[in-house]
Design brief:
Helix 4 crosses helix 5. It is built from six helices and 14 strands. The protein has 442 residues and is an alpha+beta fold.
């Protein structure tokens, strides 16, 4: 049975692959190699597999190449879009900074006007009190003069009645006509003094009315200035409140901490006291004190903003190459936590401190390469890794915007970039929380 099956298979193979002989001829002899059907079948099958494998491999390579090209094009388009957005945000940030500076200038100018107007208001108040006192004196004098005039008239009537009845004054020997002339002259002088006092009182009343009108005008101007200042303070303080809240920082706690750090240093923002007579403060005084409190809060916000990492460490053109969070490790290919964000730019790009602080490390550290650590207020630390050059020393105090080094590719990297970290209480947090929170303010 097996022999018949093998014979049939051999016959089928001979039909498809008849036996062939390959002659090899040399100078002295001729040899041949016999290629049986089975050998030819194996050779054909092997050739088919090789050709098929080559075709499939070529197709796979072409598909990968096409896919990689599309991915690169899409990445370039995304990069261009993101770069345009960053440029727009930078322009908006600069515009907000200019608006903030202009608002601060307007605020300072308005504060100077308030100081001048308050001085004028105090002088006007003093003058008004003096005029009121003068008017009271004039009215008292007028009343006394009118009383003396009435008394003199009564004496004159009594004297005339006595003269008419007896011919002479009782108990006197003087001339009656001389007495009458004296009394008439005294009455005329009294009437003249009365008229002068009335005229002085009328002038004083007119001056008081004019002064009252000026005071009302000055109060309206003060109210307008107060409203403008209150609006400016509201516009200036609310974005800062939102910025700290967006960064997960309690504004009241931050303000109290900054205020404790500046206790005992004094300054211009002290409460106003316009009265020296022990009177209760006026409504304008209380309003001005509220504005000064808001100014003090704005100043403390400014100090706190300088101490927290709200700035960007790279001011030149750059692109984000890796966000905060879990990602594929570029070295091992495994999943790994990325504790910061990466900024890519040419070698030597200047790097800047994002907040005021003290350098706690400036040197080499394993995978970080050349690394700078800066300790800030509120328990915040920033790290700047893979530098090509470090421009600060350990223990050095730096301010926001100070240059601390140059971008490079030292340590465990695949290319030139800055690895930027923000740590709060030793725990890594997303630096973009602070950067994005400040986009609408700085």
């Amino acid at each position: 049975m097996r022999s018949r099956l093998s014979i049939r298979i051999h016959a089928l193979l001979e039909r498809a692959f008849p036996e062939r002989r390959l002659f090899l001829r040399s100078d002295s002899e001729t040899r041949f190699i016999r290629l049986g059907p089975a050998t030819q079948l194996f050779a054909f099958a092997g050739s088919t597999l090789v050709v098929g494998w080559a075709i499939i491999a070529t197709a796979i390579i072409l598909m990968d190449s096409i896919g990689a090209g599309n991915f690169r094009e899409q990445a370039k388009r995304d990069q261009a879009t993101y770069q345009a957005r960053l440029n727009q945000l930078a322009l908006e940030r600069d515009a907000r900074a200019e608006e903030a500076l202009a608002a601060q200038d307007r605020f300072n100018s308005a504060l100077q006007q308030i100081s001048v107007m308050q001085s004028e208001l105090l002088a006007s108040e003093t003058r008004r009190r003096e005029l009121e006192t003068g008017i009271e004196v004039i009215q008292s004098t007028l009343r006394r003069t009118m009383k003396e005039r009435d008394t003199a008239r009564e004496d004159l009537v009594a004297l005339r009645e006595a003269l008419d009845g007896e011919g002479t004054l009782p108990g006197t020997s003087g001339d009656a006509d001389g007495t009458l002339d004296f009394l008439a002259a005294a009455l005329a002088d009294t009437a003249q003094e009365r008229d002068q006092v009335i005229a002085d009182a009328r002038d004083a009343l007119l001056a008081a009315d004019e002064l009252e009108a000026r005071l009302r005008l000055m109060e309206e101007q003060n109210d307008q200035i107060f409203r403008q200042l209150e609006e400016a303070m509201s516009i200036s303080v609310k974005p800062l409140d939102k910025m700290f809240q967006a960064a997960g920082m309690d504004p009241d706690r931050i303000i109290n901490q900054v205020r404790r750090g500046y206790e005992g240093q004094g300054g211009p923002l002290t409460p106003l006291s316009l009265s020296t007579r022990g009177e209760d403060p006026s409504a304008d005084t209380m309003r001005a004190n509220r504005l000064l409190n808001q100014m003090d809060r704005l100043n403390l916000y400014r100090i706190a903003a300088e101490k927290a990492p709200f700035a960007t460490p790279v001011k030149s053109s750059f692109r984000f190459t890796s966000p905060f969070g879990y990602r594929r490790d570029p070295k091992t290919g495994g999943r790994r936590m990325h504790n910061g964000v990466d900024f890519a730019a040419p070698t030597g790009t200047p790097l800047y401190s994002t907040a005021d602080g003290v350098v706690t490390h400036a040197g080499w550290q394993s995978g970080y390469g050349r690394l700078v650590k800066i300790q800030h207020e509120f328990g915040i630390e920033t790290r700047y890794a893979h530098m090509s050059k470090i421009r600060v020393k350990k223990g050095q105090r730096v301010s926001r915007g100070d240059r601390i080094g140059d971008m490079g590719a030292t340590g465990r990297v695949t290319g030139v970039h800055l690895h930027y970290e923000v740590r709060v209480g030793g725990e890594a947090v997303n630096p973009m929380i602070y950067i994005k929170a400040a986009n609408d303010v700085f």
